């Protein structure tokens, strides 16, 4: 059974930092690109970042570029999101999701349960 | 960036109704369009990928169609468990984008 388990969320002051983790199991972690998607309270889904299976390619939303860094440790089957210079508008539930990508077929297959990040003084 | 516009944003319907949600892309995305269902407090659930391919385990009352810039999600006969928020997503190019969501409520 595929499982994705996020951790690391919490309350942080504006300008602060936080690192989220997402532990994967039940699939060959290194074979899949991985994503972070967030959802502000009562708002829609917003894609944040994607990293390739090897970690060699990364992509970011403009809203987080230069502040957030996605990375992975395939030996630990774990995805990370380092969030710096946090702003109130970064307050959201952060989900990790794996990325099925094969030719013309692409989708976010499995999602974690989410971890809440609150940026407030 | 590719913008996705869903319509309607809110839909009120009854059990047994047939409903259709539309997702329009600001430029052509071929068939790189995915639909998700989300219930309150839960992660999104994959329904349809490649615009019209039903994900394994998803009831056949759900269907998707379209290509290029216009796509639809249809539920042929609403069941109580279908009342949720639905999002489209494009995976044609980065940045990956989602529609704003369609909230489906019981009339």
Description of the structure:
- The complex is a heterodimer of chains A (121) and B (107).
- With 121 residues, chain A is mainly β.
- Chain A is built from no helices and eleven strands.
- In chain A, the strands form two sheets. In chain A, strands 2, 4, 5, 6, 9, 10 and 11 form a seven-stranded mixed β-sheet that branches. A four-stranded antiparallel β-sheet of chain A has the order 1-3-8-7, with no helix packed on it.
- The relative contact order of chain A is 0.31.
- The mean pLDDT of chain A is 97.
- Chain B starts with a strand and ends with a strand.
- Chain B is mostly beta strands.
- In chain B, the strands form two sheets. In chain B, strands 2, 4, 5, 6, 9, 10 and 11 form a seven-stranded mixed β-sheet that branches. A four-stranded antiparallel β-sheet of chain B has the order 1-3-8-7, with no helix packed on it.
- Chains A and B meet through strand 5, strand 9 and strand 10 of A and strand 4, strand 5 and strand 10 of B.
Give the SSE layout:
The complex is a heterodimer of chains A (121) and B (107).
Chain A: E1 3-7, E2 10-12, E3 18-25, E4 33-39, E5 45-51, E6 58-60, E7 68-73, E8 78-83, E9 92-102, E10 105-111, E11 115-119
Parallel strand pairs in A: 2-11
Antiparallel strand pairs in A: 1-3, 3-8, 4-5, 4-9, 5-6, 7-8, 9-10, 9-11
Chain B: E1 4-7, E2 10-13, E3 19-25, E4 33-38, E5 45-49, E6 53-54, E7 62-67, E8 70-75, E9 85-90, E10 97-98, E11 102-106
Parallel strand pairs in B: 2-11
Antiparallel strand pairs in B: 1-3, 3-8, 4-5, 4-9, 5-6, 7-8, 9-10, 9-11
């Amino acid at each position: 059974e595929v499982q994705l388990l996020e951790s690391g969320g919490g309350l942080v002051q504006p300008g602060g930092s936080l690192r989220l983790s997402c532990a994967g199991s039940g699939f060959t972690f290194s074979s899949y690109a991985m994503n972070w998607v967030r959802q502000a309270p009562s708002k829609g889904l917003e894609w944040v970042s994607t990293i390739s299976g090897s970690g060699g390619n990364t992509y970011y939303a403009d809203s987080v570029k230069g502040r957030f860094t996605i990375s992975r440790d395939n030996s630990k089957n774990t995805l990370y999101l380092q969030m710096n210079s946090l702003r109130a508008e970064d307050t959201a539930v952060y989900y990790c999701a794996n990325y099925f990508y094969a030719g013309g077929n692409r989708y976010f297959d499995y999602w974690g349960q989410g971890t809440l990040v609150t940026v407030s003084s | 960036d590719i913008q996705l516009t869903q319509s309607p944003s809110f839909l009120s319907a009854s059990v047994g109704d047939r409903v259709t949600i539309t997702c329009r892309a600001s430029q052509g995305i071929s068939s790189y369009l995915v639909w998700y269902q989300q219930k309150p407090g839960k992660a999104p659930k994959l329904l349809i990928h490649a615009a019209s391919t039903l994900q394994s385990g998803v009831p056949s009352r759900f269907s998707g169609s379209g290509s290029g810039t216009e796509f639809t999600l249809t539920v042929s006969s609403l069941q109580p468990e279908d009342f949720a928020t639905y999002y489209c997503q494009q995976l044609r190019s980065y940045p990956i984008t989602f529609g704003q969501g369609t909230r489906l409520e019981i009339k």
